[in-house]
Amino acid sequence: MDAGHQAVFICSHVFEGREPILYVCRTAGEFQFLCGSVHEESDLPRVAGMDCVVERDASLVELLDLPDDWQAERGDVKSPWIRSHID
Predict the structure, then answer these.
(1) Which pTM was predicted?
(2) What percentage of residues in the chain have a pLDDT greater than 90?
(3) How many C-beta atoms lie closer than 10 Å to residue 31's C-beta?
(4) Which pLDDT tens digit goes with each residue over 20-42?
(5) Looking at beta carbons, which pairs linking 71-77 to residues 24 or more positions away fall under 8 Å?
(6) What is the rounded CA–CA span in Å between residue 34 and residue 11?
């Protein structure tokens, strides 16, 4: 599958443009793009195309090679991504 058309999970805050992406993880080949804020239990993740998410935040391109069971986070949109293995 073309990575640009890969379906990814994003939190509602990111989906609605209320918060930036500050946390990314990849498990079982699936990417999650999250804001790091607290969500209501009823606030379900949304699905979007990788290309649409990267179009919003070009810094995500450097995370497209994130291996399974790895995560990346940053303090704000001007900070660098810090990668680590998910324990």
Answers:
(1) 0.89
(2) 79
(3) 20
(4) 999 999 999 999 999 988 888 77
(5) 71/23, 71/24, 71/25, 71/26, 72/23, 72/24, 72/25, 73/22, 73/23, 73/24, 73/36, 74/22, 75/22, 76/20, 76/22, 77/20, 77/22
(6) 5
